[in-house]
Hints:
The protein is α/β, with parallel strands linked by helices. Helix content is 48%, strand content 11%. The protein contains 21 helices and ten strands. The chain has helices spanning 12-26, 35-45, 54-62, 68-78, 89-108, 125-137, 155-163, 177-182, 195-198, 237-250, 292-302, 318-322, 341-350, 354-366, 372-383, 388-401, 406-418, 422-435, 440-452, 456-470, 487-495, and strands at residues 113-119, 145-152, 165-167, 183-186, 190-193, 201-205, 223-227, 251-258, 273-277, 280-284. A seven-stranded mixed β-sheet has the order 6-2-1-7-8-10-9. A hairpin with a 2-residue loop joins strand 9 and strand 10 (280-284). Helix 17 (406-418) runs antiparallel to helix 18, helix 18 (422-435) runs antiparallel to helix 19 (440-452) and helix 20 (456-470) packs antiparallel against helix 21.
Amino acid sequence: MNGKTDYQSIPDTLLLRLSEYLTDKIGLHFTKKRWNELHPKMATAMKDFDFEDVGEFIEWLVSSLPTQKQIEILASHLTVGETYFFREKRAFEIWEHSILPGLVDARRRTGKRLRFWSAGCSTGEEPYSIAILLDKLIPDLRDWNITILATDISTAALRKADEGIYSDWSFRETPPFFKDKYFERVNGNRYLLLPDIRKMVTFSYLNLSEDVYPALQNNTNAMDVIFCRNVLMYFAPDHVQRAAERFYRTLVDGGWLIVSPVETSQIHYASFATVRIQDSTFYKKDTRKIKPERLIAKYVEKEVLPYSFPPQKVKRTKSEKTSHAAPYSAPGKPKQSVLTPLEDATILYQKGFYSEAEERLRVLMSNDSSSQEMLVLFTKILANQGKLEDAFHWCEKAVSADKCNPHLHYLLAVILEEQKKVEEARTSLKKALYLDPDFVLAHFALANLSLRLGKIAEARKHFGNTTEILSKCKPDEILPESEGIRAERLSEIIGAVRL
Length: 499
């Protein structure tokens, strides 16, 4: 067998193992009908792994545990990373004229804060297109708190995106004046995006199939709009479903999910309200579409509660037992299935029903009946709705009640950073590390913050501290305050950071 082996020469059993491997590790879906398409892609990928025989390469691959770098290389060969400014121009035009103006007007009245996520951003043309549109439509943009998060599985693509240098091919759907207004020519026919636009976008490594989101820790919370176009089309159906559910939780109520026209499907986006605008389909988070009581009943009927509150360990306070916010009880169930407002709120929070979760706890919070556990959950509920001032207030209250808890100082730092209060965030992170020098996520957060501030030496120090602490953890150990991130995963993410 040689490097030019055709698709038919590889046993079906091996191709099936490869297909299952790619689905499990990356979320990519290759049915038997697409195996002939898979073969040439693997023949190209094998060169990056120093193999000369496709069959041997596939056999080795499916028998190994992939590193983050290997996953990244495979993904780059198995997906099309090509993009350009204002790709799928029709969707951008509708977004510009029919969705964004109303969103801007609403936020202008409630704090001038907007959050966008380009999930699967490739080399950056999409998030920069978002930034340019905002610059065009918001005259007082400097007065706004704008977040544009751009993530991808390819660190090579992220490095190119961060540089902001493009060739003519990236401008094939833009008018001539576009380059003159937002770019400067460098190195012949190459164009560098202006600094004011580049600094609006934050690039970060994230695997949509594997990583945790929404999470305050990686800034994937309280989004107004998520662009995830020409990404999910490569995923297996169950991975698409899981990603859609996570996107739902990531958005604030009324937030928008924008996918490619070839990716629209009611099956995958059943939780969203479908909105048709000028023959195009968009998805909107509308919590009124699903009854929270039914969601809670599912947990009660299965006698399953979120991991934080197993039924046998929950201690009901006197205030919870006597609260006017009556717990939900499924018909015909024994008394032990009755849930407290805290349990109700936890279920709703984890499924993205943030306003309903807030309602469950609001009475107890206003009556000064809150436990520390409630304060932390309430803070996260508010933060995931973008209610940062309220979240800061309740987090400060939690810190005041337990000043020696490093996790509370860390949570406060995450909120402060989202408010663009960078120095206050750094101070809070340092307090967390003073209380717990081995608090790995605090080191990681301080490293990223230092990197964004251009403090490279300080960033290296904290990344080094993070790596050293992680080396003492078991690979599958869930890190404290990470909302599910494993030690091994964080190590891989650090490996993708460019210093």
